[in-house]
Amino acid sequence: MDQVSGGNRREFLKSSxxxxxxxxxxxxxxxxxxxxxxxxxxxxxxxxxxxxGTGAATQALSTNGSVKLTAIADAxxxxxxxxxxxxxxxxxxKADRVDVAPERIFTGFDAYQKVIDTDIDxxxxxxxxxxxxxxxxxxxxxxxxxxxxxxxxxxxxGVRQVLEANKIAKEKKxxxxxxxxxxxQAPYLEAMQRIKDGAIxxxxxxxxxxxxxxxxxxxxxxxxAKNEMEYQMRNWYYYNWLCGDHICEQHIHNLDIGNWVKGKxxxxxxxxxxxxxxxxxxxxxIYDHHYVEYEYDDGSRMYSQCRxxxxxxxxxxxxxxxxxxxxxPHGHVMPISGDAYHFSGNSKDPYQxxxxxxxxxxxxxxxxxxxxxxxxxTMTAVLGRLATYSGKEVxxxxxxxxxxxxMPNVFSFDANPPVMPNPDGTYPIATPGLTKVL
Length: 438
Ligand SMILES: NC(=O)c1ccc[n+]([C@@H]2O[C@H](COP(=O)([O-])OP(=O)(O)OC[C@H]3O[C@@H](n4cnc5c(N)ncnc54)[C@H](O)[C@@H]3O)[C@@H](O)[C@H]2O)c1
What we know:
single chain, 438 residues, disordered N terminus, 6-stranded parallel sheet, binds nicotinamide-adenine-dinucleotide
């Protein structure tokens, strides 16, 4: 397995082909022969038919040209069927773009393989992120173009699996989009260009936040679950093998912006966190707050907060401090001397733009691969979790090369998940200073 070092800007840039909007999709790739004609129908398969999967499928089916959803997979039959209904409802008069025969609705842990094995051109991977490396690798080996949601893993072995598989994806010239949609959002693109052009000098510090009241409450009661595996799968947000904790699941968006500004990944992190409000056993094993200080190789820092606690100061944002000014990369750049820039253009829905850009790349045979960037941003979030859970300073290289996997060996509704409850129904919670994470 290759080692990837934090802080190496040249390597990072080389390995992070981040799409920056339809107008700058990258070089024409003459070897890509997926689409002989831009008018061919793009056949889409969906793996994970929940909230985001149905949203992403709707967006993929709303791109220009002929496009059809032809296969769908979910762990659960009811979710697959509800997902199909909701995509059709979203598409309204274009509902005929959903063309999924009953025999192309697959369920269970191996359903992803069955979708990918059909004649689809593009697969959308939108399950909980624990499965992403396995699904991504399978799709790459099958030679499919891919849109995968963030995060792309929950642990270092998963991140490495994605990086390894992506080498093959690049060789095969597959198009890979990752759901870090700020890379397709006009205010970010405009501000980032100015920051990169030196408008606020050298970047010495970043502040990034995902503070809010939390996401959904557990959906399935323990008493209604057939067994622990079903209970955790339905309530996946609260279990690390499925979710990676909310620093990974949500805060990745803001950490990704920090890395984008710096053009590299941090070299180490220290932090603190815990559970103060979301303490009931139904909230599984994740923390409800994390504070992490990341350090880059030039000594600059990224100060990161994420909190799932109601009634507190909320903010989902990023701020950049440079030697010559400050920026809020969501469209605001404020040099100490000179005019401030405030985005005033038309900002299209980035969830749609990321699919427009991917579809254009598939049709035109353009280079398009966001997976390394997605893996690096995921690893940044994982590094933060390792720091808060352990209470120790954790180095990027050590963390990335860790063999501690959160995933089960067996995927079956008859098997136990990797973390089982204590006799009183609570789960083991990481204790800083005591818990070993590496
Ligand atoms: N980019 C964004 O802004 C954004 C927004 C929301 C969610 N997401 C991401 O999308 C992913 C899914 O989130 P969601 O909100 O749609 O969750 P969800 O619970 O609504 O949907 C997940 C679906 O995946 C299914 N599933 C679980 N394991 C599976 C497996 N092994 N094979 C097939 N199906 C499986 C579930 O049954 C469920 O229907 C997460 O990684 C999340 O972070 C991204």
